């Protein structure tokens, strides 16, 4: 019996998802400890258009054209979704890597990065197909005839600690879930600057997207905690352990700067580094992870439970962020460029830490000015720090972090 067609899909739609910054707790969270993290206003977007922007070659009914990170993959949709076809064979058959990786457009990524992204893309597509179509072998027959194109754009630096891989995996999971009719139409999301222009999904839809995206993260990083994809899916600010996520109200009155050192790093490598250290010297390194966990618990106490009401949240967060960086440094996952930024901030009475997997990538600076400064003096203090960073590290990128952006969403009007 022929597989039933897909539910009607618009010929064009756009989905986006945010990156994240970790305030406290990276690496320790991989071992079940508590982290505090927030989504940020830098997003990855995918625009779906059908039919595909190429004529279907002979024997291919649903060509898919996927453009991302300066790469373009032309994929046979039937091979992509065929669970008996190894993903490497799909990669080899796609008209991607050989020509494009050698081209100037693709110099931002290595072959390994492109392969990982492709592997995750393939994994996610197959998972969504398996959830929608039984038997999975019939999934390809339900793709739109003529295929489709998917064009990604991202404001997130790749491999810089801001969850670019998670944003890619979450957007991809949402697109494939929509293609296979797994998602509801969601609800309009109203904000002052874009009333109703975006739609967000209900809890069950978000849980589906998050679970599928996690498998993409596993392909890319091996043993992720799930924090990055969870923040990208749900947005906002949360306390996170791999077993539990607790959403928090906005962090009003606390501001942050992100500084990208431009030093490339690899999350999988950083995770392996910590695993090896723990295996070799558990007595030395376990306590560091437990201390990081204690910082996450203290944050909960001060910001959520407000157990004594006497602790100044600003003073606490300044101290916690600094201490977290020192613990991560001792764990061996920082980088001299990150340490230099943290020292610069500390010398001016501010707090800073690496954010994400470390080894390069971004530092997070907390704008809690030294006590006793007026708001204007505080702003001048931060501007002075930015000027010093610009002068001493001209290659670094500095930007104000908008924390708590909404999670994955559908854009009505794009
Ligand atoms: N827009 C994108 N399109 C395709 N793949 C992407 C995209 N953005 C990121 N990736 C994939 O994710 C990898 C980067 O993931 P990595 O975990 O090293 O960095 P990150 O997610 O930016 O940082 P962190 O995990 O520390 O938050 C890239 O090498 C690439 O394979
Ligand atoms: C280093 C890490 O803790 C954060 C990476 O953004 C890894 C993870 O949580 O999966």
UniProtKB/TrEMBL annotation:
Signal peptide: none annotated. InterPro entries: GHMP_kinase_C_dom, GHMP_kinase_C_sf, GHMP_kinase_N_dom, GHMP_knse_ATP-bd_CS, Mev_gal_kin, Ribosomal_Su5_D2-typ_SF, Ribsml_uS5_D2-typ_fold_subgr. It is found in: Cytoplasm. It catalyses: (R)-mevalonate + ATP = (R)-5-phosphomevalonate + ADP + H(+). Residues 317-363 form the GHMP kinase C-terminal domain. GO terms for molecular function: ATP binding; mevalonate kinase activity. This is Mevalonate kinase. It comes from Caulochytrium protostelioides.
